[in-house]
Amino acid sequence: MSADEVNSVEQGTQATESRTLPSSLVIPGIKGEMVQLRPATLDDLPLMDELQAYHNASSITGKDAQAERALVHTWVSRSVAWERGLSPEESGVGDPESRRTIAWSVLADSNPDDDDVDDRTKVIGMIFLIDIDSWAKSARIQVMLGRDYRGRGYSRDAMPRVMTYGFAPEPAGLGLHRIWVAVPEKNTRSLSVYQSLGFIKEGTSRHALWDDANQRYQDQIVFGTLVDEYDPIRSLDVFGMHLIEDNPGVKEALAAREHSLAMEVNDSRSKREAREAANDRLSNDLASLIGGDSAEEKAAASKTSTKNDGRGYNWPNSNNGDEDRNAKRSERAWWRNLVNRSRGGNE
């Protein structure tokens, strides 16, 4: 990607960035290798009870089953209201901050076009982008699976694809800047998944949750990742999954990734050129202290007495090029080389 193309991507991103959410949203379906995601409906809510999705909630999310169930009903209601173009107040559950939520039902099926089977029988859980804050470009992600579907890799297939959509620039995605999660300290399985996805530990809320099973308080760990940190390819590859290019936001995410890599290359090139320029200045400065018939000979003479120190600079602090590799370090000191060369011989 050329410098002009990089600038074009930057200008295009800035031009489309908005601090408000649309009044209605067509929630896209998302394909996975193990699961399919479709917009959750109110009719899907009883299925979560049948799946025992709220079993052991205090260990998974840090909330009791009754509270978790009420939250899921709220999130799905808000998601459906947004699809219908209703305001948060009209959703039936309200939202004082006018934030939005997207809820997808997770279907354990790799063929969403199979019309012979009611897809409600394939639902194994839900995944959410919660409290989408258009001003801060932030959202929280959470997965809830039925009791018998946990630990099988379904969330590892679904989460990266939802995050790719969330981070993709508008209108292909939500244009988020940050996605975060909050996890009870005892939920080590989820902590491992989030770290594998590239989430970074941001902090700990001490004794923020009650562990009912062990009758004690537990910490809540907050993890987050930013749009310029998230790699849609690596996040899937770490779990042996593959990118599905016709998923929403994937093409834009790949373009942004290419843009980021191009910026890194340009930055690396600039730093290399700066090091080379500094190196040339150092050589010329040293050459001015060394005898010789011309500036070129002086520079060449100074370079023969230098050695790269690993930081991109050729410091004359070794016997680089000397035949006697066993000479004492003091005899190879850069200032001795300068003195010897200025005198035209050895001490």
UniProtKB/TrEMBL annotation:
Keywords: Transferase. GO terms for molecular function: acyltransferase activity, transferring groups other than amino-acyl groups. SUPFAM superfamilies: Acyl-CoA N-acyltransferases (Nat). Residues 1-20, 290-331 are annotated as: Disordered. Residues 8-20 have a biased composition (Polar residues). InterPro entries: Acyl_CoA_acyltransferase, GNAT_dom. Gene3D superfamilies: 3.40.630.30. Residues 66-222 form the N-acetyltransferase domain. This is N-acetyltransferase. Residues 295-310, 322-331 have a biased composition (Basic and acidic residues). It comes from the Bacteria.
